[in-house]
## 1
Amino acid sequence: MSKVSFPIVGMHCSSCAKNIENKLRSISGVETATVNYGSEEATVNFDPKITHLQTLGKAINDIGYQAILEGDTTKTPQNLKEEAKRKELAHLKTLVVLSVIISTFVFLGSFPERMVQRILFFLVTLIFL
């Protein structure tokens, strides 16, 4: 038996840790698997003759988390967290722009018809400038 510990990025709660544990335990050759949400780390006892470390990492990646295996220098927990924050910020910016556009139409719909024509004239004038 071989015992290995490695960090996991992307867990949000203890239920995530339980999901990862269940996935690891379902792999043939894995004797025990424990995932600590607090330290964001998995400890797995497995038979290297039956399964490989890369198989464990792929199983974790397949369910939406990032396993950082030994020898992988490009993926550090800090780099992955920063990348996730950048993606979330870009997504939030997109949502803000869409909500401003939708809110503008709702705002225009609340004016009397005469006022809407003036506002639309102003907006079209800005476009042609």
Note: The chain is about 55% helix and 20% strand.
## 2
Amino acid sequence: KEGVNVTALREIKLLKELKHPHIIELIDAFPHKENLHIVFEFMETDLEAVIRDPNLFLSPADVKSYLQMTLKGLEYCHDKWVLHRDMKPNNLLIGPNGQLKLADFGLARIFGSPGRKFTHQVFARWYRAPELLFGAKQYGPAVDVWAAGCIFAELLLRRPFLQGNSDIDQLSKIFAALGTPKADQWPDMLCLPDYVEYQTVPAPSLRSLFPTVSEDALDLLSKMFTYDPKSRISIQQALQHRYFTSAPSPTDPLKLARPIRKQDAKSSDSSKLKTVKVTLSPAHKLRRVMPDRGKSGNSLKDQSVDVMKQSSHDGQ
């Protein structure tokens, strides 16, 4: 009666053109009765399940590997003039060989036409760049970079980094973590449709929020969280950052730990593995992280402490 969903058609059209090791593969799309069926390659889990699993230990090399695969997928999208616009951990799927792939291209759009306007109501709120929260209608790849920075921070902390419960609260969370931007830092900010002035908050050091990560990781994170989208690091530049060439090297995807599937646990006769239920934490639950992860990695199994006191509901 209402026809085929436009979002699904857009996703099919884009995925037919996007062929890359870190982009989900569209195998087939066909109508059946009143439904449109879309067939993708099989993927075991997603990055959100990895981050939330209390039984998984993520070393700095593991984090680097997951981030590198994410950025490689985004780099290909941007090279093809595609904005993803919905980057978040549960849209990053992980296959049986450990390869991470970008999925859910329903909000993706072609960019590059001068003067083209988009909606600013894209991305889950916790991954939305400040220019979008201020109502920007013209934007480019920098919005995906900001979201990738949020995912990077989430891998390091094992919880979402910026958890606002409204757009205004999201900006407050950003400014509390990164400081209130000044006009000389981001001149175009004052011209954005929904710009409002916030109380000036000095920027705390990123080291205080990420006390155990490497200097290279902090430097890359700070460049991904640059307020002015014109000055924000590009995906291509991020992949060339020294973070990826300094020790430790990214973990081979085949060696990355993943949540245990029920069928795997049941099929093991020699070992008495318990089934690990992957529970996606509700948005209103405060995420916690290790008090002393050091450079050996992070885990959710041990005693945990709050890194930032902040409410976190309605963010996804």
Note: The mean pLDDT is 87.
